[in-house]
Amino acid sequence: MEKEKRMTGMPQIGGEETSEVKQSAMERFKLRFGLRTARDVVEFLVHGLFFLCGLVAVACVLFISVYLVIAGLPTMLEIGVTEFLFGDTWSPKQEQLYGILPFVLTSVAGTGGAILIGVPVGVLTAMFLAKIANEKVAAVIRTAVSLLAGIPSVVYGLVGMVVLVPAVQEAFHLSSGANLLSAIVVLAVMILPSIINVAETSLRAVPREYEEASLALGATHIETIFRVSLPAARSGVATAVVLGIGRAIGEAMAIIMVSGNVANMPGSLFTPVRFLTTAIASEMNYAPVGSVWRQSLFSIGLVLFLFIMLINVFLNVFIKNKKED
Fold first, then answer.
1. pLDDT by residue (tens digit) across 60-77?
2. Are 266 and 175 found together in one domain?
3. Same-domain status, 69 and 111
4. Domain containing 274 — which CATH number?
5. Which of 35, 52, 79 is the last residue of a domain?
6. Cα–chain-centroid distance for residue 189?
7. For residues 309 and 320, what is the distance between their CA atoms, to the nearest angstrom?
8. What distance in Å separates the CA atoms of residue 107 and residue 314, rounded to the nearest whole number?
9. Ramachandran angles phi, psi of 91, nearest 5°
10. CA–CA gap between residue 124 and residue 108 (Å, rounded)
11. What is the widest separation between alpha-carbon atoms in the chain?
12. 156, 282: one domain
């Protein structure tokens, strides 16, 4: 009987010691991170969740960057960096020539043309919505802009191919309306929602005191908008331009339907052309796996990625210098 009592008593003592150890470890954990109440514990866990979400975003960017470098750089070095970037002939199947200069110049010209059209229209629309329009008119325009942002790229391309391309062909008496001009117009329309939404938010964030001070000094409402509100929202407007550039230079499906998709140098607005993105999209399914042709398409992706990064860095440095001035 005494042995049984000892046997039954021993686990109870061990369980009590284990619970005390766990409790003391939990107390040390709470003291270390300053967690005194259950609310503090919840806050800590939520902050940890946010941190993990941020890490996922960073990890995705790093993974894409590393993969593009690993997949694209060796082929670029094999072909020759100079020949690859500055070669004016792309004929991987017949002549094994991998010059992407026509694609680069087309992407620059197409994106630049879309920005020249889209940025003024988008910024002026944002100024109208934020500072001039009444609530009813602004609500209607915002709804239209939201719908414009939700239209799939392929629908833009389809409308452009059915409506815009024949119109350009007939207006300029061309053999084909699928050219650089049609691509620029489609891109300009596609980047409008991004520019309008971000620019309007930035203009609304300008302190009311700035505008009141300008009006008190005798400036008109329009002068105040252009000379006070717009400069004060410069960083947000620049961010809108960056988003527009990213959307324009990264678009493929709509452009492939209206640009002609021919590897030509962009000699004029009426030349059928091919962008960096459309080169990847149109040839990836036909390039044999493991061939130089297929790997060169990854090299094009690397060039496109670096191109967008350089634009972002340039604009961020430009904005920072403007703020310091």
1. 989 998 998 998 899 999
2. yes
3. no
4. 1.10.3720.10
5. 79
6. 16
7. 16
8. 18
9. -145, 75
10. 24
11. 111
12. yes
| Domain assignment of residue 153, given as a range | 81-324
The per-residue DSSP string of 159-203 comes to HIIIIIHHHHHHHTT-S---SHHHHHHHHHHHHHHHHHHHHHHHH
Q: Backbone phi, then psi, for 100, in 5-degree steps?
A: -105, 15
- Whole-Å CA distances, 83 to 68, 91, 196, 267, 293: 19, 13, 40, 20, 14
Residues 253-296: tens digit of each pLDDT: 899 999 999 999 998 999 999 999 999 988 888 888 888 999 99
In terms of Cβ atoms closer than 10 Å to its own Cβ (0-12, 13-18, 19+), residue 62 is exposed
Length of the chain: 325
Task: Tell me which residue of 258, 256, 265 sits closest to 178, measured CA to CA.
Answer: 258
The average confidence (pLDDT) of the chain is 86
Instruction: Return the structure tokens found at 244.
Output: 């527009």
For the record, the structure tokens of 184 come out as: 């620029």
**Structural tokens at position 109:** 């010209």
